[in-house]
TrEMBL record:
PROSITE patterns: SAICAR_SYNTHETASE_1, SAICAR_SYNTHETASE_2. One of its GO terms (biological process) is cobalamin biosynthetic process. Pathway: Purine metabolism; IMP biosynthesis via de novo pathway; 5-amino-1-(5-phospho-D-ribosyl)imidazole-4-carboxamide from 5-amino-1-(5-phospho-D-ribosyl)imidazole-4-carboxylate: step 1/2. It comes from Alteromonas aestuariivivens. PANTHER family: MULTIFUNCTIONAL PROTEIN ADE2, SI:DKEY-6E2.2. Its EC number is 6.3.2.6. This is Phosphoribosylaminoimidazole-succinocarboxamide synthase. Coiled coil: none annotated. It comes from the Bacteria. Keywords: ATP-binding, Ligase, Nucleotide-binding, Purine biosynthesis.
Length: 237
């Protein structure tokens, strides 16, 4: 597979075209950002850790019958992925109250949410990723009602798989975001990434934060903690 020109550069990843029009290369960089890019640092090995972590998680989801865009690792920091027409919304599931939910609603951090809370957010940095609902998504043509239903169903299927996975490793899956796209056959497929950058993970016993909140809140040991998460799951880095 030949990597060609850059297609898109995000805050922490770069997407490249390949000589196959249906495949892309996803490059995980060491860049780490928070607060819509107001805080940016380079963290050694982060790209490698997130690339391998993402491949591990996506493989677990594929084994559970959830289609993902990830096909193979091609280097320490790069993965081969299917090309998708991405839907510009984030699907967020909250199992425990934290982050913006606490700030918006004034609830106590750590409150267990039963049933879990599902939210949609428009993927738009300039607008600070505002919350949207099904009506916005359909009215503005971002996705159809059938696609919305499929994204919700898949997000909760992911929740069931990963809550159990992290629980067995002594961690709580507090919340996370997913992004979906449409493949050439019109199927909804899980895209982008699942890493500690895009979810919240706490140690079950101590409530130690094991995700990007360590960077946001200046807690330190960001990559070291990501590696600890991976190793608890059985992924050697």
């Amino acid at each position: 597979m030949e990597k060609r020109e850059e297609l898109y550069r995000g805050k922490a990843k770069t997407v490249y075209l390949t000589d196959d029009s249906d495949k892309l290369i996803l490059h995980f960089r060491n860049d780490t950002s928070a607060f819509d890019g107001q805080k940016i640092e380079q963290l050694d090995r982060k790209g490698e850790v997130n690339n391998k972590f993402n491949h591990f998680i996506m493989t677990k989801l594929e084994d559970a019958g959830i289609a993902t865009q990830v096909e193979a690792l091609v280097s320490d920091t790069e993965s081969l992925v299917k090309k998708l027409d991405m839907i510009p919304v984030e699907c967020v599931v909250r199992n425990v109250a934290a982050g913006s939910l606490v700030r918006r609603l004034g609830v106590e951090e750590g409150l267990l949410l039963d049933p879990p809370v599902f939210e949609f957010f428009l993927k738009n940095d300039a607008l600070h990723d505002p919350m949207v609902n099904d009506y916005h998504i359909v009215s503005f043509g971002w996705a159809s009602e059938a696609q919305i239903a499929e994204m919700k169903a898949l997000t909760f299927k992911v929740n069931a798989v990963l809550k159990a996975l992290f629980d067995e490793a002594g961690m709580m899956l507090v919340d996370y975001k997913l992004e979906f796209g449409v493949d050439a056959a019109g199927n909804i497929v899980l895209g982008d990434e699942f890493t500690p950058d895009g979810c919240r993970l706490w140690d079950k016993e101590t409530r130690k934060k094991m995700d990007k909140d360590r960077f946001r809140q200046g807690l330190g040991s960001v990559v070291e903690t990501y590696i600890e998460v991976a190793e608890r799951l059985g992924l050697a880095l």
